[in-house]
Structure formats: C-alpha cells, structure tokens
Amino acid sequence: MSFIGIAVFCVLVGDLEISTLDPWQEMGRMALGAVSPDFFTTENLGRAFLNTLAFAIIGVALGSALGFALSMVFHNPGVRFFCAFIRAIHELFWGLIFLQAFGLTPLTGVLALAIPYAGIFAKVYSEILDESDQAHLKAAPEGTGFISFFLFVRIPDVWAHIKTYTLYRLECGLRSSTVLGFIGLPTIGFHLESAFKQGNYEEVAALLYLFFALIASMRWWMRPKLVPFYVATALFVLPVGADISMVNVVRFLTEDIVPGPLRWVESYNVDTFYIFGQWLRVVVVEQALPGIVNTVVLTMIALVGAGGLTLIFFPLVSAKFFGRWPRKAGHMFLVIMRSTPEYIMAYVFLQLWGPSMLPAIVALSLHNGAIIGHLIGHHADQLPARADAPKGLNLYAYDVLPRIYRQFLAFLFYRWEVIMRETAILGILGIHTLGFYVDSAFVDIRFDRALVLIVITALLNISVDKISRTVRTRLRLSRSPDIV
User: What counts of helices (H) and strands (E) characterise the chain?
Assistant: First the structure.
C-alpha cells in the first residue's frame, strides 16, 4: 500500500497533461499503416535483420561470458559495486559514449550491449548459484578438486536456470540491438526511426511485424547446440564500419570528458576549483536535480501501473482461466507488448496525448506489465489444482491470486531498477527525465556534462536496486525470481 500511496502522490505532482487538440488524423494514418504493411519499401531489409541478430548474439554471448566470470567473485563488495554501476547505465548511453570514441563501428554496438549485460549476468548468475539446493553439495567425495566440483556438481544443478535466463536475455538483447539503431547503427531501429520521422507508417508496421515474428519464433530457432554456429556466423556478418581512429579515442578520454574548467589547466589553484564548483553546481542544480525528480516520479507511477496491468494480463496466458485458442491470442498480445521497444510505444502515445510523462508511463506500464504477466501466467499454471477449487472470478481472487502474490511482488520489485533504467531512452522524446539532459548534452557536444549526468543516473539506479533488495529481503521474497 505504501507504493500505491507514493504513486498517487506522484500522479498529483507529475506532468500528465494532455496537450494535443486533434491527434486523430495522425492516429488514423498509423492505424491505416498497421493494416496495410509494406514489406518492400525498406532498403537492405534482410541486412538490417542480420545486423540486429549479429549485435544481439555477440553482445549477449560476450556479456554472458564476462558475467559468468564476475559471478565467481561477486561476493566481493568492489566487484558487486562495479557490476551494479555498469548495468545501471542503459545500453543506449553506453552506445552514445562509445560512438564518440569508436565511431559507427561494430565495436560500438557490441560493447554497448556486452558491458551492461555483463553486470546483469554477474548478478543473476551469482544469485542462481547462491539460491540453488545446497544439500547435494555434501555428497561430493572428499578431496574433489575445485574445477571438478564446480563443473560436475554445482553447474548441473543450476544449468537449466542459467540456460533459461540466458535465452530470456537474448530476447532483451534483440530489443536493445534494435534500440541502438536510434543512434545510427545499421539495425532495424535505424529504419524504424527513419520511417517514423517520415510518417511512413506502412513501413513501420512491416518492420514491427517482422520483429514480432522474430521474437515469437525464438523457441524454435534458438537451440543451445546451435549457439557456437550462431556466434561464428554473427562474427562473419557483422557490418563493416569506419576504421577506429586512435586520435579520436585519445582525445575523447583525455579532453572531451574532462570537465571544461579543468581542461588544459597547467596548475590547479583556488580559482580553478571555484570555477569548477560553479560549473558542477549548474549541472547538478539546473539539470540533475530536476531530472532526478522527474525520473523518480515517472518510475514510481510506472511501477505501480505495471503491477496493476500484470494482475490483468496474467490470466490471459494461464490454462486455469482460458482454453487453448484464447491463450494463444493472449500470448500473442503479450509478445507484442513486451517485444515492442518502449521508445516506439511512447512515440505512438506522444502523438495521441502530446509531450508529457503520460506517454512514457503508459509505455513502461504496458511493456513491463506484459513481461511480468507472461512470467506469472506460467507460474500460475505450475500450481497444483485443488479438488474443491472455485471457478471464474472466485478462482482468480480466492485461489490463484493469494498463491502467486509473493512471486508477483518478487518479479515486480525485481523490475523496479529495470523500469528506472528504461526511462533513459524515453528522455530522447523530450520527457524531462535524466535521459533528456544526457541526450541534450550529447547533442550540444558537451561530453563532460553528459558523463557527469550518466554517473548520477547510474548512482540513482544503484540506490533503487539497493532499496529493492532491502524490500524483498524484509518481505522474505526471492532475491532472484526464476526467469522463464
């Protein structure tokens, strides 16, 4: 109830104004495009899909490998903070950082995915290992070596969870790879953004439908035995970009990201630090603080909104409530909601309601509600049926909901940090979160200011993750709910 109360307060103070007078003409064009997709307009469509897959596969594979190595020492406070920091920065911002240093090269896209995913994998793999059944570990013969013990005792017990989560993260990687197209990398997102800006909604619909089909078909084409083949093929088909200029790399690291007042200073004195303090005050007071307030307000409303939609969505895919064909329709609906990048959803709602927090809130609520609803629906199906179970609304309210409620809360609080991260890319649409000020700093070529704001964004996300873990611990919820 506390979170609902906070969300209600945020609704009262947040910018939820509807400012459009007549959005229906544009919405009509979008609806017409949705029912008449044009699959032949996009140039190099096949190549764009291959690029999207290549970036996702290599980025997730590299992130998984690095994350697995980090999970072995995740108990170290320094490693834990490092992983929290790198995963707290959205892939889009990592992309913008590497874009300044490496340009539009494959390295930019791969690192933008691999670095934050390494932090995510390290956390989840570590928690999967910690929460595995420890009883069988005592059965290992005395004197068993560490490597043999790890490979033949610990890993087999958690392999199914690791494999399932890694597959889920690949789905996320496909969405993230698409989003990287918004900064110029040649993925589907590049063509999506161009089509949206030009109002070519038939092309937008075609690209989205093909992307939905790619996500929905993962269960058939993604097989663990084929992973080495996919990785090798992805390395081969990665797009060829411009050569990396070491001059640009050195300039970016030694000049561009150094705060303006400290750049090219031969000796530091009181005046230097005073000017730097004034510069930092402007960044913090005029940009960081308003951005933090708006980010927190948007996040809290979206968190509660996602929770409410989850409770509506999960019966759509549960055999306890619907038959086979209604469940297939519900599954397809949730696939569309969770696969559509939040940027695209928010853009559509922006046409309907105008620039405010409302489009972002609805987009984040729908996207995350669909993800958690999918997970909770499958969790509900695993509950043993009672012989005296009621039916209909009584089954939902008095049997299933009380039994899945703790798992529902675990998933919801687990997504809290993710929801806050996702507000970053929505700042590009003009919503004044921290992401808006970061994007503005990059546009103005003020990389020093952008870096400070990105660090503040990361620290804010780390704080929310810490609060989330504390809440889950006090409520005795699973620290790492199984991702299926």
Answer: 23, 0
Instruction: Give CA–CA dist 473/456, Å, rounded.
Output: 26
The whole-angstrom distance between residue 388's C-alpha and the CA centroid of its chain comes to 41
Q: Tell me, what's the pLDDT at 433?
A: 87
Say what the pLDDT of residue 125 is.
86
The CATH number of the domain where 4 resides is what?
1.10.3720.10
The pLDDT score that the predictor gives to residue 484 is 42
Q: What is the distance, to the nearest Å, from the Cα of residue 294 to the centroid of all Cα atoms in its chain?
A: 19
Whether residues 20 and 55 fall in one domain: no
Q: Tokens representing 219? A: 């269960």
Runs of H (alpha helix) within 322-433: 324-339, 342-353, 357-381, 392-394, 401-414, 416-426
Exposure of 95 by Cβ count < 10 A (0-12 exposed, 13-18 middle, 19+ buried)? buried
What are the angstrom distances between the C-alpha of 96 and each of 51, 113, 126, 173, 341? Answer: 18, 12, 29, 17, 18
Could you tell me how far CA 373 lies from the centroid of its own chain? Answer: 16
Judge if 313 and 248 occupy the same domain. no
Per-residue model confidence (pLDDT) at position 110: 93
Q: Residue 449 is part of which domain span?
A: 1-25+269-484
Q: Which residues of the chain have pLDDT under 70?
A: 1, 21, 131-158, 241-243, 265-269, 387-388, 476-484
User: Which residue among 256, 281, 316 closes a domain?
Assistant: 256
Select from 355, 378, 369, 357 the least CA-distant residue to 304: 369
Would you say residue 264 lies in a domain? no
pLDDT of residue 143: 53
* Domains in the chain, number: 2
Rg of the chain in Å (alpha carbons): 23
Q: Can you tell me the distance from the alpha carbon of 204 to that of 60, in angstroms, rounded to the nearest whole number? A: 26
